[in-house]
Design a protein that fits this description.
By secondary structure, the protein is mainly β. Helix content is 0%, strand content 49%. It contains no helices and 11 strands. It has strands spanning 3-7, 10-13, 18-25, 32-39, 46-52, 58-60, 68-73, 78-83, 92-100, 119-120, 124-129. The strands form 2 sheets. Strands 2, 4, 5, 6, 9, 10 and 11 form a 7-stranded mixed sheet that branches. The chain has a 4-stranded antiparallel sheet with strand order 1-3-8-7, with no helix packed on it. Strand 7 (68-73) and strand 8 form a beta hairpin. It starts with a strand and ends with a strand.
Length: 130
């Protein structure tokens, strides 16, 4: 059973950075792609980034560009998302997601659709103060 546990959220000041962690268990990591979504109050879930656990290939949302860095540590079964230059509009619940890599539609940025991801963590709250 796929389990994803996010951590690292909290209250941060605008302009700072934050690193979120996603601890994965219950599945063969190399067969999966793990990603990050977020959902702000009153808004739809938004895809941010994902990484293939097999070859480390990364994908990012086009905008805001350069604000997110995703990385993985296969030995620790953990994926990280670093968020740079945090702004109040980054306030949201951040979710870790996982899907078998062959099912992820990478072409045309379709992976940004939440409907393509089967497994979701419980989320971690990030609040950015101005």
């Amino acid at each position: 059973q796929v389990q994803l546990v996010e951590s690292g959220g909290g209250l941060v000041q605008a302009g700072g950075s934050l690193s979120l962690s996603c601890a994965a268990s219950g599945f063969a990591l190399d067969d999966y792609t793990i990603g990050w979504f977020r959902q702000a109050p009153g808004k739809e879930r938004e895809g941010l980034s994902c990484i293939s656990m097999d070859d480390g290939h990364t994908y990012y949302v086009d905008s805001p560009k350069g604000r997110f860095t995703i990385s993985r540590d296969n030995a620790k079964n953990t994926v990280y998302l670093k968020i740079h230059s945090l702004q109040p509009e980054d306030t949201a619940v951040y979710y870790c997601v996982a899907e078998r890599s062959f099912k992820v539609p990478f072409l045309g940025n379709r992976w940004l659709g939440p409907q393509f991801w089967t497994s979701w963590g419980q989320g971690t709250q990030v609040t950015v103060s101005s």
